[in-house]
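Comment thread on ticket #2218

A.B. wrote:
> Attaching the input chain for the structure job we discussed in standup.
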Amino acid sequence: MIDQKEAIKAVMNFLQDDTKRTFLVKGYDNDAKIRVVISCLERMFDKGIIRTGTMSDISFLINNAFNKKLLPYTIKSTILYNLGKMTVNINSYATHTKSNPKGNKNTFTLFYPVESVLKNAKRYDEFLQEINKTESEKIILITTNEWGINNWDIENHVDQVFFYSVENDNPQIMINLKNNGAI
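C.D. wrote:
> Ran it. Output below, let me know if you need it in another format.
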């Protein structure tokens, strides 16, 4: 678990750094990224916001990553959910609901997954505005499907970028991606 330890260290250092507010987590193992980020957030926060591009997929993505049912199948933006020791509101950054919570100095906002907006110029500009409107103490963005993203301008809009390598912990992913021509 060499890669996981490095990822935990990077996320915790970011969360404890008062000079940094926005953090982009990249990497090829989507489950590992979300597990580490949520586990680290749970150490530092009681409340938070998860902003997603697809409300219908978010519970599957999180439940699958942890290999247990942490969230119900159907997620509603008007309900608060327990996620580990945290209480979270989950809503979409892709659609506009009546009230998208902005957060405050006692909350985090996690944008996950974000790759679909990185591929669409109009949605990307709106996404950057959503990030800028967020008032949470810490903002974390997690990508998925790294190999499909060509424009990494988002890196210019965050305070820190971390690439979660899995070459030690999960070399099979790297072999598969190379064999498939994805990387």
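A.B. wrote:
> Thanks. Noting for the ticket: Residues 105 and 137 are 4 Å apart (CA to CA).
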